[in-house]
Every structure is written in structure tokens, then in C-alpha cells.
Task: structure prediction
Amino acid sequence: MPVIKYKEIMEQIMKKPVFTPKDLHNEKIPENYSKKLLFTLTRSGKIKRIERGKYTCLDDPIAVAAHMTEPCYLTLWTAMSIRGVTTQIPFAVEVATSRKRFKKKIIFQNTPIIFYTINPKMMFGYENIIWKDEIRIPVAKPEKIVIDAIYMGKMPEDEIIRIIRNSDHVLLKRYAELTSNKVMEKIKELIKCSHRKR
Result:
């Protein structure tokens, strides 16, 4: 029967951090059956529905958030926590993406996942790191966290200055040049502040 026929295919698909009906269709699983299969697996608890058309076997909101949309990367408090540059525990997973989303915020495993839509030219300054269970996640570099914090206005100035003190100022200025004059001027001002408050 189909359950046995598609068992191995589904086992491979379910290894992906996030998968969609399209993944099933690409493996020649008929559309009508794939919907039924995903519904059955969700109801049995073998997979979780993240949002419409997106599923996972994971419990980790960070790993899931990093694979919900492309291109994207984790930023702000989430990236700071991952990189160990803050002792504060983020209340949400913060994701930057150049792709417009219908929902800017979802809840997964009782954790908010917030999406910030940014200009495509702002999609730089992040790198892939290996997260739990050997899952690759894209995370902003410290210098890009600073740029995003200023660009989005989502972080207290004192916290930004603290990151700047331990960042590569040459790289920070280079990143600022890729954004706007307003961000560039603010970066110069905050670098001066960081020297004064040492």
C-alpha cells in the first residue's frame, strides 16, 4: 500500500529541518495523497505543522526558524545569544529576510518567531554555523547585528555600544557603507561613544 511504498521517501524528507508538500511532489508522491499523508503524520504527532504548508520533526524553534524561508539569517538578540555576546535569554527568535511574508510572527513550541523584512541589499554579513543535531543555521556576525539593530531600531543604544567595543571596527564601517548615510553616521557616533565609555 502507499504507506509502505512511500515510507523510505518520507523518512528522507523528514530529515530536513523544514519540509513542504512540494518536497513530497518532487518525489512523485501524488498531491491528493501527500495532503492526506501530512495530515495523518501531524495528527499522530510524528511531525509538527509550523504554519500553512510547512512541517518539521524538530522541537527547536531556532533550527526551525532558520529554515522557514529563504534567504534569511538569525539576527539581533537571537544572534547575540547564539554567539554568546549576551547573557539575556531572548523571548523570541528573530529572523531577517528579504522575502515578504504574509505572517510576520508565528508561535512554534510556545516561542514567538518574528520575521523582519529587509531590503535585499541588506542580505549580507552572516555566516552558516553548525547548530544542535548538526543542523546548519545562518547567523549574523557581531558587526551585522550592530547594523541591523540601528537599521531596525530594535535594541537599546547601550547594548549596541557594548557589542561595538568587541567588534571589528573596520568591518563595521564597511558594512555601514553598504547600507545608508544615516546608518554610517550613527556607527561613527557610536564608535566614538564606545571609546569614551571604556
Remarks:
- The chain has two domains: 2-56, 61-196.
- The beta strands are 48-51, 54-56, 72-74, 93-97, 105-108, 111-117, 126-131, 135-140.
